[in-house]
Amino acid sequence: MPADHNEVGSVSQRRYEQIVAELREVVERHSQEMFVIGDRALEIEPLREHGGSSGGERVATVRNSMIRLAEDIGLALSTVENARWTASRWPAEHRRPGESFRVHRTLARIENEEQRFATIATPPEGKLHWSVDDASRRVGQSVMSPVSPEEKITAIHALARNDDVAAAVTTELLRRPAVAAQVSAEDKVRVVEELTRDEKVAAAVTTGLLRRPAVAAQVSREDRVRAVEELTRDEAVAAEVTTGLLRRPDVAFKAMSDDTARHQVNHAQVERGRQAREHFERTSPVAPAVRRIERTMEFIDLVAACHSFVASAGRTVPGLRDRQLGDDEKAIVHENVSRVRATLDWIETAVDTGKVDVDGELARLLAGE
Questions:
Q1: Domain boundary among 93, 126, 143
Q2: Fewer beta carbons within 10 Å, N or C terminal of the chain?
Q3: 264 is a domain residue
Q4: At what angle are helices 77-89 and 56-73 packed, to 10 degrees?
């Protein structure tokens, strides 16, 4: 059954007020007792200014004295030390009756004495006494019962100091769409960067993102090129990708418009033919017979080429009778005769020595340079 509006918990409002009055007396007595403990601790070891004559040896002596006092009265060392420090911040005439020792200890953090003494004498508006949370708010500490968004954020930070706890909290919060939607783009980017420091995770995330057309479409041309270069460092992958791309007419046309690419393709074709020939000659049982046939065919081809040249010249040269060629025409004919003469010398050398190497000058003549 719901409690009556005049009840607090299971007691009436009147009884609740009696309990509060009774417990305030208890708190008051406890506060006085704690100040007694602090005063006596100060009597044993007065609080000295930082940088005074008491060096490390003196600090050790103070601590030993406090440890002995705490053991002799059956309290924790931290309790005695807190009482000693709090008592040093509140001379007897400025201690406010009715306020708990915890409130005094919290407000003791106010450095300026006049401000500290005035603060405890002026509870928050609408209140007769300071609560621990009100005192904590006054000195900028986290509160037990956060109210404002800032206080709640501070409380969450305090609870999530441990990295494992923070990770679990963050994971849980980001699973809530309404929360994730409020994270700025910059923060989302930073989160993704942190979460993908592991290369395997980064690879998996990148793969998943690039499978989304809308994402891939926003990647710049330069970044796409760099990505393809990175992804095709493996030669087997590069070969497969290149093969697939060159099957696309537009891509093949543009690629072959690049002189270097075209040269590499031509070189690759020649190299592939050479490797295939070497493999055939090494492994095929009919290779010796083929080599003999090839030599015969090469002889026939060479003789046929010479015969064809002589026959063509025999048909063409008589046609020059009584015809005067211009200077440009003569120059072209002389240039080609030089090429023919050099070629004939090359043929004789090859036939006599078996060497078919082409020197630089002959190569330029044959190329028409």
A1: 143
A2: N
A3: no
A4: 110
